[in-house]
């Protein structure tokens, strides 16, 4: 498939074609009762539920943040400049994600893939920073089971990191599928949907960065 | 008749000279499944009706497994110094009885109804994400099997269905039972979460033309509220389960007191889920009887908007009362007072429903089919359970009742008397639609009465036992502690155990009913003269549900197509202008052509299989974790690369000379 | 019955006397409410978020102490949170239904977990 502009194919959101009115779905608004896309609604529902998942992990951390071992707590461990840098990286990845969605809307497939790739790279950079940071903590004596503080910290940031990793895989898969013309359905919508997920992951980090790293114990 | 086109099973059409059409392939190797008969048409189906039936059948199997576990418990407690179960086995038994009944029977049975009926009730051909629907089903099946393999792999979970930590941690529960429980519930939790998103999008986005939210059938409304409850409650227990899993398997100390942890963390997380969970259990039943009662009272549901809003209110407020399960945990007077008042508040919307159901029946022309018996039974039995619930809401009295059999009485009256009776009402009501045959009313009566008498004999005495002081979760009671007088623990325990046998016989009558009814003749499409859209179909419905998606003008659309109001002014006088069959015939006359249904797929089943593999890996071997993850990744990519409905090229080409949708009445397949 | 029945549409136009008062599909508000930000505005917002983050970090170094610091940090965090949600995720410009389901989730999370932490006397010094 050439790298020409994206052509709208089937508006194949996953509603059965029982609503088939014989015409193509090109350019038509969604055949749904609310006029909203199924997948977009599904993603927002999912994100609403994720608030409760991360809320639980954050609450556990907040409860246990002062139950430390051997003077191994935030004051001793945190390297705020470093974490600020990785936070900045993740924040910028949200910007590049928005650029990608914008390009998809304009049907500029080249730019879409470019920005998606940059987003994935920035996300990967963030994760690399996390891995480095945790390695440093571990060397300084903060293992997973060292204390309640450590378990809660690693669990919370670990869950977030897994979400970032899954996001990176989705971003790169999307690039590959776009490149090989294997994307089914509305391309702009798919990019937008993955964008929602990615921004949410960023937003969770905004909360974690403040609550975990900045607010004094 | 509508034209349904489906991919050919054989690559070559002999002698037709037509183009060869084969199912498109994934990864260049696997052809998409296309079978419409045989086991493969069930294993790879994405049809909500088949999925609903499978949910129901598997749920029923677990009902009997959980019931058997209950019988063992009652056998143990029938007499003093029981020897049927050891203390350890007893702990496993009540844990698994509850876990099975809650997670593997009531919830999936409600899913069975929601899956089967919701698309039909809103005039859709399937749910929003059919493959995701199949995934939910298989995750439930495999998760349920996974938990139960613990029985033969070292022992089942033994910490109670609420699994309080640190009692559920390794020092106190050293077998793998709790691990099976944790991982199994994580698997079924994904099923519920994903199903919730699916059904919410379905109800909001796929309604028939003209069906605004206040014309939606009431069962669909209640099911929708339930999905929102699941959406927000499941993540909380997911957190709890992960924390417990990390504690048990990776040495974390989230709930270890000696490490400085607070066990109440588990209780809060569990009950934040656990309380909405009980409304998840009962609201579908409420929805079902809100359909059954109007049909068999020959009257519309009294106060439909009130029933809708009270259902939503119960769901919403239900999130705010969780700590009433923790009144004796040492929260302090302020917390206890707040939650006590909140809990009393929740009785109000429930009471509204009871009134509405009663007023629906009032002045109606009552027809006591088995479904109606179960529905009325729910009103009576649930009210009893609700009354004991009110006594629990009052924290001081709850302090005496908590951890006694009085609580056991309460929740069995609301769960069995509420959820289970409602589900059985639904089974009897919708059986003709789903299977095309009527269940025997005679056996239905035996089923009903034995269940009612049985449940009251079993759970009624538990109120007394509780107030006499019998604690929960005790594997044995002795003569010395049985109390004084004739009506002591011994008497009531025996009555309760006899009651459980009566109940079991009632359940058996249901199976007998299913068995003898299989030879019944086909039944009409509208045997009950019902009111809502799901009855504007054949029995069983065609694969595509509706030949033409109906346009909806009012609540109880089907009723109003059959009956016209010829009354004057405020007087309502309904005259029949069409039979159900005639309404259906009219829809068939204008059948749509070229319906492409969502196509079957391997990937949901394969993805679902990866979960227990992963779970066994967490317990036994890292290699299995890797294998499970690999299968999952493979399945996810396969899924993503596969269109939800197969390519047009997958389908039979139109007959020669027919290049566009026919402008004549559709021909039969 | 009607002889001009067509089935090219899926029954949404009235084709029978029964359907004479058929309605168009129930359709909520339009999917977009206001004009979306341009790419330049997005960059601006991103820089704004970066600046807020810098202020947050600076506040921990040279800012006030105690409760005042915590409140300021929380406010800054909330502002960043909302900007990403409302603008990057388009919530401000999209259907209110999306806002509803997300804010319910967010509200439950803050409210319920807040109460849990309160019972642990988390907010009492």
Summarize the structure.
The complex is a heterotrimer of chains A (217), B (669) and C (125). Chain A is mainly α.
Structural features, described:
The complex is a heterotrimer of chains A (217), B (669) and C (125). Chain A is an all-alpha fold. Chain A has six helices and no strands. Chain A has a single domain, classed as Four Helix Bundle (Hemerythrin (Met), subunit A), CATH 1.20.120. Chain B is built from 18 helices and four strands. In chain B, the strands form two sheets. Chain B has a two-stranded antiparallel sheet with strand order 1-2. The radius of gyration of chain B is 26 Å and the shape is globular. The N and C termini of chain C lie far apart (79 Å). Chains in contact: A-B, A-C, B-C.
Quickly list its features:
heterotrimer; B: 669 residues; mainly alpha; two-stranded antiparallel ribbon; 4 strands; C: 125 residues; 3 helices
What is the succession of H and E elements of chain C? HHH
**Number of H- or I-type helical stretches of chain A:** 6
- The radius of gyration over CA of chain A amounts to 21 Å
Query: What is the count of structural domains of chain C?
Result: 2
Q: In percent, how helical is the residue content of chain A?
A: 55-70%
The residue ranges of chain C in which pLDDT falls below 50 over 5 or more consecutive positions are 1-30
CATH topology of chain A: Four Helix Bundle (Hemerythrin (Met), subunit A)
Alpha plus pi helix count of chain C: 3
